[in-house]
Amino acid sequence: MAGLVSLFLQSTGFVALTWQNLVMIVIGLLLLYLGIARKFEPLLLVPIGFGAILVNMPLSGLVEDDGLLHYFYFGIQSGIFPPLIFLGIGAMTDFGPLLAKPRTFLLGAAAQFGIFGTLLGAKALGFSFPEAASIAIIGGADGPTAIYLTSKLADHLLGPIAVAAYSYMALVPMIQPPIIRLLTTKKERLVVMGDIKPVSQRVKIIFPIATTLVSALLIPASTPLVGMLMLGNLFREAGVVERLSKTAQNELINIVTIFLAVSVGSQMSAEEFLNIETILIIVLGLVAFSIGTASGVLLGKLMYLLSGGKVNPMIGAAGVSAVPMAARVVQKVGQEEDPHNFLLMNAMGPNVAGVIGSAVAAGVLLSMAGG
User: Do residues 57 and 270 make contact, with C-beta atoms less than 8 angstroms apart?
Assistant: First the structure.
């Protein structure tokens, strides 16, 4: 009997549990806390946090070649999940605020400066161009885009980059407000912007078709992401494929999000996560995201001056691709200054421009790398 007990104990995960596993389990629990108790993007943080706990369970075999999480991760590694996520995002996105105020395209473009600024920094630190490009794309705060680009250019960095990109997307409510407050005055934060004028259905139908044609011809490498984003949006606006639109908005994107987020968490193993390269990537990702936020706000301040004080510069922070989280942050910070100031719809213009911008930036980097 004693021998059987000893054999059983040797088969448990306790015998192989290391302090590194325990550190990563605590990090997974922290992500669950932020998602459940603090409600920071629970659709992302809950599956990512639980995936991090699962992958640090010794002897479970979940990430072996025939393990469950190995098959989940195939959708990331092959580049299938990101375009499907973009299809769903397109179906959920109303480009009306952007089309009503086309100048907000510039705010979405300005926020991509964090990508190209960090690209130079990562190169200076010794990363190759494909690696630096994959790290820099984190600055767009767009998890699917970061995963897609990295899978094409530097798949050996896919784990830490996916974790960093999705972590910063989910932690937008913590990261952006201090940057916004640092770069704006109370007077600027109190600016009340006018209502968004409605855009005709015809314009909304033409926009995804025209955007796909232009982006595909100018930057062919951006077509998988931009094309799926615009197809989803065409489903939404066409008015004749409601079933497809609802499926893309609900069942499809929910299923893919589960697979993708758990797969991201599965890359948070102690062996892959607790090393200098991963920590450096996460720090550079934070720098990229911070620069992108700051660039959008600074261009917003310029628009504030040129418009005679009619543009609230905070909406520039929404130019990163974290949709609609970044727009909600702008709304929240604005209402902390004035409870009657509703900036959400004005912030959605640069926010959806950021989605397009990050996908185009990924296509540019992919083309530059010869991918």
Answer: no
